[in-house]
Specification:
By secondary structure, this protein is mostly helical. 49% of the residues lie in helices and 7% in strands. The chain has three domains: 2-106, 3-Layer(aba) Sandwich (Rossmann fold), CATH 3.40.50.300; 122-196, Orthogonal Bundle (Helicase, Ruva Protein, domain 3), CATH 1.10.8; 205-262. Helix 7 (148-156) packs parallel to helix 9 and helix 11 (214-233) crosses helix 12. The longest helix is centred in the C-terminal third of the chain and has 20 residues, at 214-233. The radius of gyration is 24 Å and the shape is flat.
Length: 267
């Protein structure tokens, strides 16, 4: 796996370089594509790739050749390429930030993984898995137990960082508890990045989508803020009071937002 946000030397890392190609290139070096010959390379965050690297990646996929930085000849490579991105590449195409020919080359077999907030039923299994991983990492003698209400708190959180963020939170719970401890709802709440209410209200993401109406945008933002407050307080009434909105109006708008979400009008 290789992240594509690695800075200005990404091209040399992927495709290699010749001795003297640039300052500090004291010897010839193979790139990741050449090193992965007859294997598989996973390029994470493909939507972040620079334009110059997009051209070279297209050549790899079309012709099976690379040209290391500073080289005069091309090298044949044969590698399976798997890519991932959290960006909408169709929108990146429209904005001119991603090549259309490259898009159709990498989209031969596409799989859309829903965000964790849409896979709430996976959270208990993932928590148990990451708990076991964390206990092995910290060489714990006895397994921790997780209160049902703690799972509810974690399930109500919107997880903007998806599975990686959940892993981090569970590792934090392992590191801050003792062997055999019961992980309670309060401990789970404290481990969340929005563990205090001011932080929860300050970290609501921008949820605007193209062709949104103002009403849809406001409903979705209210729904996200309410879910974050609920995750931190664990109390519906308190979350509603913090929003300073009439409860009848609040619940009507929340239900309207959820109906739109279910009908894919919002997400």
């Amino acid at each position: 796996m290789y992240p594509l946000t690695a800075g200005p030397f990404l091209e040399s890392e992927l495709f290699g370089y010749e001795r003297g190609a640039f300052t500090g290139a004291n010897e010839k070096r193979k790139g990741l594509f050449e090193a992965t010959h007859k294997g598989t390379i996973f390029l994470d965050e493909i939507g972040e790739m620079m334009a110059a690297c997009q051209v070279k990646l297209l050549r790899v996929l079309q012709e099976g050749t690379i040209r290391p930085v500073g080289a005069r000849s091309e090298t044949h490579v044969d590698a399976r390429v798997i890519t991932a991105t959290n960006r909408n590449l169709a929108l990146e195409l429209q904005a001119g930030r991603f090549r259309e020919d490259l898009f159709y080359r990498i989209a031969v077999l596409a799989s859309n993984t829903p965000p964790l907030r849409k896979r709430v039923s996976d959270i208990p299994l993932l928590v148990d898995h990451f708990l076991c991983e964390g206990e092995k990492r910290f060489k714990c003698a006895r397994k921790r137990r997780v209160e049902k209400e703690a799972i509810t708190v974690l399930s109500n959180y919107p997880w903007p960082g998806n599975v990686r963020q959940l892993r981090h939170v569970v590792e934090k719970l392992v590191a801050t508890t003792m062997d055999g401890d019961l992980i309670t709802a309060e401990l789970a709440r404290r481990a969340l990045p929005n563990g205090h209410l001011a932080g929860a209200r300050a970290q609501v993401p921008l949820l605007y989508h193209e062709n949104d109406s103002l009403e849809a945008f406001l409903d979705r933002t209210l729904l996200t803020l309410y879910e974050q407050l609920l995750a931190t307080t664990g109390n519906h009434s308190q979350a509603a009071r913090l929003l300073r909105i009439d409860r009848t109006s609040l619940y009507q708008r929340l239900e309207r937002a959820r109906r739109r979400m279910r009908s894919n009008e919002l997400f």
